Amino acid sequence: MDSAAENIPPGEVKPTRVRFLVLAGLSSGFLLAYLPRAGLAPLATTIQTDLTFDDLQMGRVLAAFYAGYFLFQIPGGILGQKLGNRLALPLLQLMSAIANLLTAVAHSFGLIWFSRLLLGLAQAGMVPCAAQVIKNWIPEAKRGTASSLMGSFMSVGSIIATGLTASLVGPLGWRIPLVLFSLFSVCWMLLFFLMFRDRPAEHLGTNDAEVKLILSSDNSNGADSQEKKSIPVRQLLVKMVSNGNLWLFCLQCVFRSFGYAFFITWFPAYLQQSSDASVQKAGLLAMLPLMAIVLGTLAGGRLIDLIYQRTGSKYFSRSLLSAGSTMICAVCILLASQVPANSAVYLISCGTFLSGMGNPAIWVTSMDLGGRHTSVIIAIVNMAGVIGGYLSPIVVGALFTYIKGMPTPDWNLVLYLFAAIYLGATLSWALINPRHTITDDESQPDR
């Protein structure tokens, strides 16, 4: 990520590297956030036995997080703008730790449901705030790579949470692991508050060369001075509602989240039904598309930066890259319908790798469209994603019922559905113009 800093002319001061410390702090914060978020699922059956919950009650407990996560996206982004992210992010992490402690001490359905709702409320603001931090601290040409690290550490956190809780629940029970997760969050909260500042120029560890490196790309076209001009909230809302790019941006997120949710909900069952795979085999095969998404996310972040550095075009590096990757993803899924079911998972995994390549573009395009309102824009986009994730298992469940009622079940209908979903994302991305923020008068030169 530091190729620019390596080309320093002799005699000039080399930029400091505080921005990498900030990026490491954000990445570790997301990893820790996903411990309580994903760590409850492996404990679900143990909790049900201990608290005598039925499946319906446990389902409501697991869903409570997403209700809170949906509701607090925009307020969480506004919190970061009002308090500054140095205060907002530690505060949200502290709320997350408290919510998780409430889960650990709960002995009733009401308290454990409320604790998961509170956890969703707390973690909803982390993505909008983190996007603003990346915009403030990472040079524009490197934001794709930085954003891919955020997405990757979320997935790493889920993997660690699953393995760690599964190994600790036997000797320690289900409550102690949750307490440990809260302690980790409190430690992160204190360290982040001490080491982080909202702006590079405010940090004692940065030198003028690093501040100039971070801000040079944004200042080169006068964007920074324009972004500092505040506008009334009512005017901002009017601009967002009337902005076609924002509507398309939200729409592609609905499509992409709809597709991703399939792989973390119904995909193992699809493999069992379509190929007569055992539960164990289906579970192992279901990991392949998820691993491919992680790898695709890392590759996509680097590719976004390379294309932007070569062309200087935000449309090529954001929209065109994402449209192309999702289109090829749709083709891979269609081809999977033409091969034996046992082999289809490998073509599907190729498709999810390509879909993952577009994940960092969501973060970067949020910064492009949002400007100083990045945290609010990415909050809106996240809310759109929650809608897609919520609808996916419902629609697929209904499709499963329809297929099972057919005289000759055709499980390729599932693949046709998701090929269409990714084609929808392709069309949305192709029409998005990330060259101007939503508050621009679009008089600036395109890049």
Automatic annotation (TrEMBL):
MF terms (GO), sorted A to Z: transmembrane transporter activity
Residues in the signal sequence: none
GO CC terms of this entry: plasma membrane
Domain Major facilitator superfamily (MFS) profile: 22-437
Annotated localization: Cell membrane
Highest taxon, organism lineage: Bacteria
Pfam families referenced in this protein's UniProt entry, alphabetically: MFS_1 (PF07690)
Membrane topology label: Multi-pass membrane protein
Keywords tagged on the record: Cell membrane, Membrane, Transmembrane, Transmembrane helix
PANTHER family (UniProt xref): FI19708P1-RELATED, SOLUTE CARRIER FAMILY 17
Protein's name according to its UniProt entry: Putative sulfoacetate transporter SauU
Organism: Gimesia panareensis
Gene (name only): sauU_1
